[in-house]
Design a protein that fits this description.
The radius of gyration is 21 Å and the shape is globular. The relative contact order is 0.16. With 332 residues, the chain is mainly α. The chain has a single domain, classed as Mitochondrial carrier fold (Alpha/alpha barrel). Helix 7 packs antiparallel against helix 9. Strands 1-2 form a two-stranded antiparallel sheet. The protein has twelve helices and two strands, in the order ααααββαααααααα. Mitochondrial glutamate/H(+) symporter. Responsible for the transport of glutamate from the cytosol into the mitochondrial matrix with the concomitant import of a proton. Plays a role in the control of glucose-stimulated insulin secretion. One of its GO terms (cellular component) is mitochondrial inner membrane. This is Mitochondrial glutamate carrier 1. It catalyses: L-glutamate(in) + H(+)(in) = L-glutamate(out) + H(+)(out).
Length: 332
């Protein structure tokens, strides 16, 4: 990739389309991952990914599995586009005289890509997590043994929370991502949307450091010759393998990020003041195994997502669109 001339608009289109297709396919598993990661010991609502999905459909309907999908679909285009284009950019400038990159330089390019993407990833994850976890909190708060009388709600009630005070109040209708964003901006300013930025960097930078070099080397194995491109199915499998490996490797950071960004807390669920406090409390109260919560779900989400991303990327859908539309004027 470092030897190819970079067409930024084409890479943005590839990343955007791939992100939308991938998220649409795997979002229910991502929802299960968020809910499993937020469960505390002794307060489990769901036993496994399948149990979570079945209970979600029963209590919230089929579209309940897509709570938070709108904000993800809206922001995944710039997020994936920035990630892929940034990696290409850094690889291009780190390459010398057309020679291949060393593993260290590939990791350095991935690090740069991960640092760039958090500009979009952090607020996207912040809003998505609130919507994804609402169903778990509603189920938990329907259990009289878990709640005080003032917190009991009807089966179909939707809860909202004042993000400043942390008090739970009942609301007649569901809270949207737009409402959450407005309230955070009004009460906490722009930093409210970037809560958990440090934890997001801790997750996304190592992920990119692992993913991009691993994918590049796996994909290279499928090339019939050094100058030729690998088949699309090999790009897909390489993306799946590299994505799932990187996802599991950074899952502890993802658990910490999810806990920090969850503004709504269930009964007896502790709050965290920062990354160190979160890691310490999880270790003390739930043990090391808590850091692997949702790891299988995350691997199942990331594997096809990045497989689809790489197929779209290497097939060159963006280049085709630019070459066959008035947008070709944006090309190099």
């Amino acid at each position: 990739m470092s030897q190819q001339q970079i067409s930024l608009p084409a890479k943005l289109i590839n990343g955007g389309i791939a992100g939308i297709v991938g998220v649409t396919c795997v979002f229910p598993i991502d929802l299960a991952k968020t809910r499993l990661q937020n469960q505390r010991r002794g307060q489990q609502v769901y036993k496994s990914m399948m149990d979570c999905l079945v209970k979600t459909v029963r209590s919230e309907g089929y579209f309940g599995m897509y709570r938070g999908a709108a904000v993800n679909l809206t922001l995944v285009t710039p997020e994936k586009a920035i990630k892929l284009a940034a990696n290409d950019f850094f690889r291009h400038h780190l390459a010398k005289d057309g020679k291949g990159l060393t593993v260290f330089k590939e990791m350095l390019a991935g690090c740069g890509a991960g640092m760039c993407q958090v500009i979009v990833t952090t607020p996207m994850e912040m809003l998505k997590i609130q919507l994804q976890d609402a169903g778990r909190l509603a189920v938990q708060q329907q259990k009289p043994v878990m709640m005080t009388p003032t917190k009991l709600v009807a089966t179909n009630a939707v809860l909202s929370r004042s993000y400043n005070s942390g008090m739970v109040i009942s609301a007649p209708r569901a809270v949207s991502a737009t409402q959450i964003a407005k309230e955070l901006l009004q009460t906490q300013g722009i930093q409210g949307l970037y809560k958990g930025l440090g934890a997001t960097l801790m997750r996304d930078v190592p992920f990119s450091i692992v993913y991009f070099p691993l994918f590049a080397n796996l994909n290279r194995l499928g090339k019939p010759s050094p100058e030729a491109s690998s088949p699309f199915y090999w790009a897909f499998l390489s993306g799946c393998a590299a994505g799932s490996t990187a996802a599991v490797a950074v899952n502890p950071c993802d658990v910490v990020k999810t806990r920090l960004q969850s503004l709504n807390k269930g009964a007896s669920e502790e709050t965290y003041s920062g990354v160190v406090d979160c890691v310490s409390k999880i270790m003390q109260k739930e043990g090391p195994s808590a850091f692997l919560k949702g790891a299988s779900c995350r691997a199942l989400v990331i594997a096809p997502l990045f497989g689809i991303v790489q197929v779209m990327y290497f097939v060159g859908v963006g280049e085709y669109i630019l070459d066959n539309s008035p947008l070709r004027l944006l090309g190099p």
